[in-house]
Amino acid sequence: MAAPEVEVVVVRVFQVQCGGDKVLDELGMKGGKGMTLYEALNEAKIEMDHHESDLYFELSGRSIRIASQYPQWMKSATTFTSQIEPKGSLWVDVPFAYDPWWQGVKA
């Protein structure tokens, strides 16, 4: 069985090559509202950042309630302590979940 990160990147590459989000729906990578993790966090105005395709979001009760609706994404997530302001805050790193990066790959 492949590591969760490998599974996610294979799905993302397939999504880019086939030009659609249907594959994300079929694999349970969209939450109850039919949004990606990035879209749901953005709609809720959760503090986010990224590095290339990796999505970072600030850890809070609200962000975790949203993220818990995306178990396929969260099984490969890790946490880290911010080294920039506000220093010491906890963040979550979700590999391959930053949608705008993937949209750029399609272009």
- The number of helical elements comes to 6
How do the strands line up in the largest sheet?
1-2-4-3
Low-pLDDT regions = none
Approximate strand percentage? 15-25%
Task: Look at the structure and give the mean pLDDT.
Answer: 79
Helix % is: 40-55%
User: Which structural category fits the helices and strands?
Assistant: alpha+beta
Number of strands: 4
H-E string = HHHEEHHEEH
Distance between the termini: 32 Å
Largest sheet: 4 strands, antiparallel
Question: What's the alpha carbon Rg, rounded to whole Å?
Answer: 14 Å
Shape label: globular
Ordered list of secondary-structure elements with their pairings:
Elements: H1 4-18, H2 22-26, H3 37-43, E1 48-51, E2 54-58, H4 61-67, H5 71-74, E3 78-81, E4 90-94, H6 99-106
Antiparallel strand pairs: 1-2, 2-4, 3-4
Detailed description of the structure:
The model has no long low-confidence stretch (mean pLDDT 79). The protein is α+β, with helices and mostly antiparallel strands and 107 residues long. Strands 1-2-4-3 form a 4-stranded antiparallel β-sheet, covered by helices on one side. Helices cover 43% and strands 17% of the residues.
